[in-house]
Amino acid sequence: xxxxxxxxxxxxxxxxxxxxxxxxxxxxxxxxxxxxxxxxxxxxxxxxxxxxxxxxxxxxxxxxxxxxxxxxxxxxxxxxxxxxxxxxxxxxxxxxxxxxxxx
Amino acid sequence: xxxxxxxxxxxxxxxxxxxxxxxxxxxxxxxxxxxxxxxxxxxxxxxxxxxxxxxxxxxxxxxxxxxxxxxxxxxxxxxxxxxxxxxxxxxxxxxxxxxxxxxxxxxxxxxxxxxxxxxxxxxxxxxxxxxxxxxxxxxxxxxxxxxxxxxxxxxxxxxxxxxxxxxxxxxxxxxxxxxxxxxxxxxxxxxxxxxxxxxxxxxxxxxxxxxxxxxxxxxxxxxxxxxxxxxxxxxxxxxxxxxxxxxxxxxxxxxxxxxxxxxxxxxxxxxxxxxxxxxxxxxxxxxxxxxxxxxxxxxxxxxxxxxx
Lengths: 103, 308
What we know:
The complex is a heterodimer of chains A (103) and B (308). Chain A is mainly β and 103 residues long. Chain A has a single domain, classed as Immunoglobulins (Immunoglobulin-like, Sandwich), CATH 2.60.40.10. Helix content of chain A is 0%, strand content 50%. Chain A contains no helices and seven strands. In chain A, a hairpin with a 2-residue loop joins β3 (44-51) and β4 (54-60). Chain A is elongated, with a radius of gyration of 15 Å. Chain B is an alpha+beta fold and 308 residues long. Chain B is built from eleven helices and ten strands. In chain B, β2 (40-46) and β3 form a beta hairpin. The longest helix of chain B is centred in the middle third of the chain and has 15 residues, at 193-207. The chains are: A mainly beta (103), B alpha+beta (308). Chains A and B meet through loops of A and α3 of B.
């Protein structure tokens, strides 16, 4: 199972600043391993962030994303103490969901 | 050791191969790193076919307070990917694992069984149960073997992760243990004769010139503002340089996408010196850490950090 994300969500002058660090190998599918064989592509394909049942960010990613991706964005319309849900799915179907309370 | 590195047919005069001082004459680096005139270092390596492999010119450049590297480090440190390894290491520390299904919470890192906070800042140190000076990595291996029943040979055979592979358990554990000393003052002890001896051996190794290039650690780390390409090297003969080095390892190496430990750092330095391979957990590797840690006394731990 995938390792937990590190998420920070802080209210700053009416906006929620969200910083997400995901633990993922992010293989492009172009790299060759020590055995000379291509390492199969393995990357996060979709990220979804939702707040109170409303999706506030939807992301579609390809293989150009770096290992252990870092994602930062901001949105309005939430308050301190609200819960934020972050979910990613990778191209092999592995998934991870973490929650955080907005500080 | 990389194939062939021990057999490079080098017949350098000191001028051609290693150190050229200001006037163009050749001189060995002074041991204390205090000597005058070390202005430029040119490394010209030729392999058997006579091709120049490497030509580095290390020129003195004064460090600026707002140098781009420190800005870069600051930006990355805000969301240091090493935190992922720290979280994973914490799981590994707390979960019952290994053939004996035991947790490492009984592991004594020098501050009593299970005490992690501040332990890393006081390692390497002497442990009575093994009657030897051990650093964090060799102590963790010792705990994984004696408490959890892992095989020492297996652990020592692959202590560091390969490129593109996940962190090894040991790397994650080191990251976790080091993170519990963030902000602690470096206080590598010198209270037993074994610890004194370890420091003395480490210092001797640091200044010892050997290998096909006749390199010592002090060649690159014995004066201020020496560089490899654009990478400024800390002067490890002075407390300031030793503090910055000791305080920031283990570190997340951006260029490798992985957390690397002090043992890895030392073994890669030794590889660049073309010395024989530094064996993981060997007394030599621990002694070098002791030398660095004792010199770094009073510095503030800030590991795992982010490095280039």
